[in-house]
Amino acid sequence: MKLLVTGFDPFGGETINPAWEAVKLLPDTIQGGEIIKLEIPTVFNKSADVVAAAVREHQPDVVLNIGQAGGRFGITPERIGINMDDARIPDNEGQQPIDEPIQATGENAYFTQLPIKAMVDGIKAVGLPASVSNTAGTFVCNHIMYQVQYLIATEFPQMKGGFIHVPFIHQQVVDKPTMPSMSIPDIAKGLEAALEQIVLLKDSEDIKAIGGAEH
């Protein structure tokens, strides 16, 4: 089993992105699954082109994209990607699409194929906060989640895809005293636990567990 795991480069004035820093710490194999690591640009469309090229090269069974969500307390597997770019800030090449569909021929939204409830339980089992998220935003994180799902729908129907958001790391919140943070090693530990569940449940349905949200 091959798993392509990506992390974004820094954006929004930050000098580091915990997503890629944590991905770099992942082992090369998890529960027998081969982990392929890739840094991708925080750029609309270019990020999707980089991932699509890697998919065609490596033919992975799973694509898991990791992104930073400053302000979130825990590690949050995403349930859904929506067909909308609506950027609050420019990407790393100055693009700032507003209310633009990602794919004119795509569905309004796509759900992940990954066992997000089991992933959350796995992360909690190693002592880290985690929850299911029902919004990946409308910036490049949602963009890549949606683009991977579109790729699955149109070209790689046997592949599975998903997204995890991770918090700021400690050095990013020195001047943001109200923001939660998590260490890079802990984020990597949480991602490894999530990936373990993806491999273990590769031929099974997700667990039935409470994980919804009221708002």
From TrEMBL:
<feature type="active site">
    <location>
        <position position="78"/>
    </location>
</feature>
<dbReference type="InterPro" id="IPR029762">
    <property type="entry name" value="PGP-I_bact-type"/>
</dbReference>
<feature type="active site">
    <location>
        <position position="141"/>
    </location>
</feature>
<dbReference type="InterPro" id="IPR033693">
    <property type="entry name" value="PGPEP1_Glu_AS"/>
</dbReference>
<dbReference type="GO" id="GO:0006508">
    <property type="term" value="P:proteolysis"/>
</dbReference>
<dbReference type="InterPro" id="IPR000816">
    <property type="entry name" value="Peptidase_C15"/>
</dbReference>
<protein>
    <recommendedName>
        <fullName>Pyrrolidone-carboxylate peptidase</fullName>
        <ecNumber>3.4.19.3</ecNumber>
    </recommendedName>
</protein>
<comment type="similarity">
    <text>Belongs to the peptidase C15 family.</text>
</comment>
<dbReference type="InterPro" id="IPR016125">
    <property type="entry name" value="Peptidase_C15-like"/>
</dbReference>
<dbReference type="Pfam" id="PF01470">
    <property type="entry name" value="Peptidase_C15"/>
</dbReference>
<dbReference type="GO" id="GO:0016920">
    <property type="term" value="F:pyroglutamyl-peptidase activity"/>
</dbReference>
<dbReference type="InterPro" id="IPR036440">
    <property type="entry name" value="Peptidase_C15-like_sf"/>
</dbReference>
<comment type="subunit">
    <text>Homotetramer.</text>
</comment>
<keyword id="KW-0645">Protease</keyword>
<dbReference type="InterPro" id="IPR033694">
    <property type="entry name" value="PGPEP1_Cys_AS"/>
</dbReference>
<comment type="function">
    <text>Removes 5-oxoproline from various penultimate amino acid residues except L-proline.</text>
</comment>
<keyword id="KW-0963">Cytoplasm</keyword>
<dbReference type="GO" id="GO:0005829">
    <property type="term" value="C:cytosol"/>
</dbReference>
<feature type="active site">
    <location>
        <position position="165"/>
    </location>
</feature>
<keyword id="KW-0788">Thiol protease</keyword>
<keyword id="KW-0378">Hydrolase</keyword>
